[in-house]
Amino acid sequence: MAEASSSEAQDHFTCPVCLDLLKDPVTIPCGHSYCRDCIEDYWVQADNAGVYRCPQCRQTFTPRPVLGRNTMLAEVLEKVKKAEVQAAPPDRYTTGQLQDKICSLREKWLEVYCRTDQQCICYQCLMDEHKGHDSLSCPEIPQGYRKTEQCQDSLRTRPESKCLSVCLQQHSARAALEDTESIFSEMIHSIERRRSEVRDLIRAQEKSEGSRAEGLLERLEQEIDELKRRDDELEQLSHTEDHIYFLQVRPLDFLPNNILHNVFGLKFLFHLIFKVAYELKEQLGNAASEKIEMVSQTVHKEYVLHISEPRTRAEYLQCACQLTLDPNTVSVYFSLSEGGALMRHPQSHPDHAERFDGWEQVLCEEGLTGRCYWEVKWRGKWVHIGVSYKGTSRKGHGKDSCLGHNNKSWSLFCSPYDYHFTHNDKKTPVSGPCSSTIGVYLDHSTGTLSFYSISEDTMTLHHRVQTTFTEPLYPAFGFQEAEISQVSTHEQQCVSFI
Fold this sequence. Notes:
The chain is built from nine helices and 19 strands. It is α+β, with helices and mostly antiparallel strands. The longest helix is centred in the middle third of the chain and has 97 residues, at 141-237.
């Protein structure tokens, strides 16, 4: 009866987030109660969105509610905990219960659980029949249960957490878009106001100079009339021989030279306004281009919503890609059949700028830029398995054309005795079991390149590269006295090497 009462109390006072008895209980405005730490951690994820939600009834709150301790609920919980401590377990077992707890072979207490054989055993059995098996002592079993429950809780809440994360990302994107539109609208309005001010300034100057020009024209007409009158006088004076009278005549007034000066000055002013406006346009364009480029790089490098990397071989095979050997890159030491199989027989190939004529290497046709996975089965002396940029050199026996020995290719070297990773002529020893099957995983956007040893469905990481890829990557292979039997993606043979 006490156990039933305790169970009901636990169900009634359990936090919906951590599924444990409430700790430091708080009650939010909708009436539901949570552990303070649980609801605060849950709401931290919504800080960027500014909208806070009850995990149970999904009611939203804006702004974030102030959390206050529910003292009455806390007192009740203290009483429940004390009642649980005082409740003693049964101190007697029935004969049937005792028989179930004794080893049938040695008649000792069953105190160990053998994970390998999935049965309860005694310590003597652990030292004999179950020696070396994966085992768990009785005190550790409750802890194992709790870990299992935590994993189950995590699996149950993972879809909701991912959904919440995606919703928050979408809300943040919409908010950023609205803010950006508002800023650009303000910039456009500001430029429109400046354009209107400059237009009014030019028109005012045009009106002012137009009035001045009318005055100048009127004065010019008067001066023309005066010049005509003077011209008549000069015509008359040209026929007189009285030089004294000629000198006594008032000197001729000439056309003032400031008229053309005013015209050219006004033209220079308008040209200056045009020059300033043009320079402003260029500066705005350059500044906008630089800032947009900075924003674009930041978004791609820092704030892209990353998809979690696969965890099992089945999940990796969901990223499998189709690969096809590029006949234009096949080394002169190989021939390519009509079925796409690469055979170790020297063949006269037509000259091509992309063909390897020094190293026994070949690239695939596909330039990879997304999330891709492929597996390679090999045997023999040694092989190179990797990726390369399109611009890797193809001619001669130099390092610039050897996979992994330049800054344009990444390669895992495999032999029966040694594995190492090579990039830019730098070798890095790698750990892990030797295997005839190598898995390659590429996530171009995050700059991740991983090499795995494959044994049935078990994947062991050999080496992982974390960098920034600037071009599409082409799967690449190189080998000496070895062969790659097939390149498989999603249980499908794509390329054969014979």
